[in-house]
Amino acid sequence: MRNWWSSRKGRHSSENHYSRWEQDYILLNFSQIGLFYEYLEMVIQFGFITLFVASFPLAPLLALFNNIVEIRVDAWKFTTQFRRPVASKARNIGAWQEILNAVAILSVVTNAFIMAFTSDMIPRMVYLYAYSKDASMSGYINNSLSVYNISQIHPDNMPEDYLHDNSTFTCRYRDYRYPPGHERQYTHTMQFWHILAAKMAFIITMEHVVFVVKFFVAWLIPDVPSDVKARIKRERYLIQEYLRKYDVESVKLQLSASFITEPQSDTSLTPGEYEMVSECS
């Protein structure tokens, strides 16, 4: 809107009266941290996608559609709404690379915890291989529910339906605790600790597997392609050859200059030497 308001006077003027550089001058200035917010936006998006992809697997696809549109919007913005930026050399994206690596490593941990503690996969496997009598999932629901004695609830917290209907004495809730009347009632059973140990083992195993795959792929796909490395080596070789030839030529010029000046110095005699030569003759 600011660009439009600044350029309104030249909208109906010919370029002879309102030159190109004047039209570019009224555009927004591309500051030194102009790309900071662009990188920040991408890093935040990358963090949300990787850290919580197990909770919403459709997020990467939506991010892809968003980036396709944003590429065109940023292209229009940089070519029509900003002044031409001053180019500067950069070896890489700087600290953003380390931030992305840290987020990628942290995302493995968060997704492993999400998969371990929010799904029924591990409790089902523990029940199937350790507690099922016939190696099937029959009885899993009953096994995963604990019992609580309703009469032990404080009267102020008692449900209203229970005050009118006293036929219900217990309720079931999802947990692994000893039932009322047990010497360790309402404490966690051994199955709870078995499931917790299985979850931690799953997290450690998943982290190591994903890290091995990540580092293998990073090793398999180099940061710099092989043809680019070959071109860089060739450029270095040509530069060295040029410098070597330059040094050889400079040495030749110095030697030729010395050969030209040395005979003159031998034939030219000082007045004292001339008198000695004339006396000897």
From TrEMBL:
Main location as per UniProt: membrane
Regions that span the bilayer: 46-69, 99-118, 200-221
Compartment(s) of residence: Membrane
Keyword Membrane: yes
Domain of life, per lineage: Eukaryota
Domain Anoctamin transmembrane: 11-235
Bilayer topology term: Multi-pass membrane protein
A Pfam family that the UniProt record links to this protein: Anoctamin
Keywords attached to this entry: Membrane, Transmembrane, Transmembrane helix
Family: Belongs to the anoctamin family.
Full protein name: Anoctamin
Name of the gene this protein is made from: ANO5_1
